[in-house]
Design brief:
With about 130 residues, this protein is an alpha/beta fold. It contains 3 helices and 6 strands. It has one domain. It is about 35% helix and about 30% strand.
C-alpha cells in the first residue's frame, strides 16, 4: 500500500496518510468541491481499513474548515470509528487547535462525541502552521 501525500494549497488542506499507521492532516479546507477533494482520501482509508497497523496515530490541526469540509472530516472520523470497532487497530488522535478559536474547539468536541470509541487528546496551540514537507 502506497502512502497518500497531498500538499496544502490556499484552499485545500495537507494530508500525509502513511501505510505505517501515521496520519497527519490539517490546514485550511475550503475546496470548491469538498466531496471531490475528499474522495481520494476516503478511498485510501478504505484500503487501509483492510489491513491496518496495530496502532493508528492521527494528528489533526485545522486553521479553518468550511461547512462542506467539516462534513467530510466527520465522514473520515466515522470511518475511524468503524475501524476501531473491528479491533484490528487502536486509534489515537491528537487534535491541535488555535487556543482562541472556539468554533474549531466546538467542532472538535462534536467529532470526539461522534467518534466516542477513539482516544482523543485535544491541545491548544498559539498558531497552526503548515507542516514542513
Amino acid at each position: 500500500m502506497n502512502n497518500l501525500i497531498l500538499n496544502a494549497s490556499e484552499k485545500t488542506p495537507y494530508f500525509k496518510l502513511k501505510s505505517d499507521g501515521n496520519f497527519l492532516f490539517g490546514g485550511i479546507s475550503m475546496p470548491e468541491d469538498a466531496a471531490s477533494f475528499y474522495f481520494n482520501i476516503i478511498d485510501w482509508l478504505s484500503d487501509y481499513y483492510r489491513n491496518p497497523k496495530k496502532e493508528t496515530f492521527v494528528v489533526v490541526s485545522f486553521r479553518y474548515l468550511n461547512s462542506s469540509s467539516s462534513s467530510m472530516v466527520l465522514k473520515i472520523f466515522n470511518a475511524f470509528k468503524r475501524l476501531q470497532e473491528t479491533d484490528k487497530t487502536k486509534i489515537k488522535c491528537t487534535w491541535y487547535y488555535e487556543e482562541d478559536d472556539l468554533d474549531i474547539l466546538d467542532y472538535v468536541d462534536q467529532v470526539k462525541q461522534h467518534a466516542d470509541n477513539i482516544e482523543f487528546e485535544i491541545l491548544p496551540t498559539d498558531e497552526i502552521k503548515a507542516p514542513v514537507n
